[in-house]
Design goal:
- By secondary structure, the chain is of the alpha/beta class.
- It has 14 helices and 15 strands.
- It folds into 3 domains: about 300 residues, HUPs (Rossmann fold, 3-Layer(aba) Sandwich); about 100 residues, Anticodon-binding domain of a subclass of class I aminoacyl-tRNA synthetases (Four Helix Bundle (Hemerythrin (Met), subunit A), Up-down Bundle), CATH 1.20.120; about 55 residues, no CATH class.
- A hairpin with a 4-residue loop joins strand 1 and strand 2.
- It is elongated, with a radius of gyration of 26 Å.
- The two termini are about 40 Å apart.
Length: about 475
């Protein structure tokens, strides 16, 4: 059975068949860079990171595009989010954009999120947006009103097909102030006239102005992926009006299907309420990383299916930390044991178990990227691996290599939970080296029967969270 994806557009799980065999075009709505990213953003972009990682693991050549919104994202009041932040900080809009864009990528890098292949900015694609708007006007799907341009939703019979909303049931004012100049309350802005005090402005056939929020994604997706592409991703909270508007304007302008598979992630909640800046119930990624390892945050995200909400609690993070430590502990132990392992192929029957774990992992991920089941398959494998490694029986170096490679492929390359030895951070390498040095000094003290020093090294490492385990073939360590 191949990969199946729950397609929000069709509201059913469908077999994934890309437009071009072996290649996948994927577009994900990126952040509006007007503040620091929080854990809600982490949930969304870790979810799409593991989707891209798994597609590549499965052999697909993925072109991953994720935009940066640096103009045009309007509040309900009609204000541009970037301009509002710039005014509050008495800074230039592009100062705000540069600062928070860099911060966003720093956060994603720290979380182990692989960077998109292309990260286009809305402000860098104004000509493409203007051309698409003009096409919509020429085809009768948009109209000019007082220097602004609006999409006429009544010209698209399929408007509402993603969110399953009917025009007559929609309320006016979503994402922008209701203006008398619109023909219908549900019409949305493609281009906004710039008032004299508006700093971000460009020349256009309709006068100086700036693009609406939705048009950027349609224009940039077409530029880099074509009129029709495979996967469009985003948060479920943006299904209306943003994603709905993308489909309408793209398909009316291009006269072709837009994205074939729609993947939308559930929200991160706090006490059942979506984490957001406006509610003040957020934790920035930078603050979260001061308390938790990036792998633990990823493990927490994987505890729920990407499409479901997940509630943030200290208990949930502690559970994720324990689960991650069990996985990584098995890998770390296998790496340590290789130093003194025999060259023979003493596998003690674990090799078929590794193959079964790979099959179980693949079956889970092929079922709409089911990370809870994928992690469960790895946890079940870890019980068997730990039983073998702690049995006292000799384990061959080749078997230990296979154990490490299995975890590196599944938990590392796909889930981003296991760092490779040769790509560990300098701090991590330094800490591991210091622990090994102390273990060596302790072993020397024990040979000299200086048990007071030996016990002191063991006890003080334990106080720091490093547990030593003495075995017939040497001392190994783990983090508690």
């Amino acid at each position: 059975m191949g990969l199946k994806i729950y397609n929000v557009l069709g509201r059913e799980k469908q077999e994934f068949v890309p437009l071009e065999p072996g290649r996948v075009g994927m577009y994900v709505c990126g952040p509006t860079v007007q503040d620091y990213a929080h854990l809600g953003h982490a949930k969304t972009y870790i979810a799409f990171d593991v989707i891209v990682r798994y597609l590549r693991y499965s052999g697909y050549d993925v072109l991953y595009v994720q935009n940066i919104t640096d103009v045009g994202h309007l509040l309900d009041s009609g204000e541009d989010r970037i301009l509002k932040k710039a005014a509050a900080l008495q800074a230039r809009p592009m100062q705000i954009v540069e600062h928070y864009t860099r911060s966003y990528f720093e956060d994603m890098d720290a979380l182990g999120v692989v960077r998109p292949d292309i990260s286009p900015r809305a402000s860098g694609h104004i000509p493409e947006q203007i051309r698409m708007i003009q096409t919509l006007i020429d085809k009768g799907h948009a109209y000019v009103a007082n220097g602004s341009v609006y999409f006429d939703v009544t010209t698209d019979p399929e408007y509402g097909k993603l969110s399953n909303r009917k025009i007559e049931a929609q309320t006016a004012g979503s994402r922008e102030a209701v203006r008398d100049e619109k023909r219908n309350p549900e019409d949305f802005a493609l281009w906004k006239k710039a008032e004299p005090e508006h700093i971000l402005r460009w020349d256009s056939p309709w006068g100086e102005g700036f693009p609406g929020w939705h048009i950027e994604c349609s224009a940039m997706a077409k530029k880099y992926l074509g009129a029709t592409f495979d996967i469009h991703g985003g948060g479920v909270d943006n299904i209306f009006p943003h994603n709905e508007s993308e489909i309408a304007q793209s398909e009316c302008a291009n006269e072709a299907p837009f994205a074939r598979y729609w993947i939308l992630t559930g929200s991160l909640t706090v006490d059942g309420i979506k984490m957001s800046k406006s509610l003040g119930n957020f934790i920035t990624i930078k603050d979260a990383l001061k308390q938790h390892r990036p792998e633990v945050i990823r493990m927490f995200v994987y505890s729920a299916h990407y499409s479901n909400p997940v509630d943030f609690t200290d208990e949930a993070l502690m559970a994720a930390a324990g689960g991650w430590e069990r996985l990584y502990g098995a890998v770390r132990l296998a790496r340590q044991m290789k130093a003194s392992a025999p060259d023979g192929d003493a596998g003690n029957g674990i090799l078929p178990r590794l193959e079964q774990a790979k099959a179980d992992f693949k079956a889970a991920m092929d079922d709409d990227f089911n990370t809870p089941k994928a992690v469960a398959a790895l946890q079940e494998l870890t019980r068997d691996v730990n039983t073998l490694l702690n049995s006292g029986s000799p384990v061959g170096r080749a078997t230990l290599d296979t154990i490490e490679q299995t975890y590196q492929q599944l938990a590392g390359d796909v889930l981003g939970l296991i760092p490779a030895q040769d790509t560990a951070s300098s701090n991590g390498q330094r800490e591991a080296g210091l622990v090994e040095l102390l273990i060596s000094l302790r072993a020397e003290a024990r040979r000299k029967k200086d048990f007071a020093t030996s016990d002191r090294i063991r006890d003080e490492l334990k106080a720091l969270g490093v547990i030593l385990e003495d075995r017939p073939d040497g001392t190994v360590w783990r983090v508690s």
